[in-house]
Specification:
By secondary structure, the protein is mainly alpha-helical. Pfam families: ComR_TPR (PF18710).
Length: 130
Amino acid sequence: MFLTLFSRVTDQIDYSIDIEQFLLIKALIVSISVFLEFGNYDKIIDAVTAANKIMNVNQDFQKKPIIDMHEGKYYLFSQKDVPTAKQKFEEGAKLAELQGDSVISQKILKEWELDFAIFKQQDSSSNQRR
């Protein structure tokens, strides 16, 4: 059911006006949180792509640091691509800093440390099973 709702949200992107797109970005961020909670990392990139599309159309990049961080989570946990994941986290932190939000910047960098530690633990656990 949630995936159906998510699909409908992403279908509305091309047909919505600015205020609706603002709300769609919020819905996409919530969707990403749900995907993370249930370990459905492959769907994160769909939400990230949709959010980036909205931000590019509106030229409103206020939520971009958070979207970049979530894209980093996708690369880390779904694709196992540590360099790209780290780059996305760093881009998000740097943009937050440029937007004058050093608190968010620091939280993104801390999130990278936590996620990378989880990733290493999961990776070593899967290697021990082999």
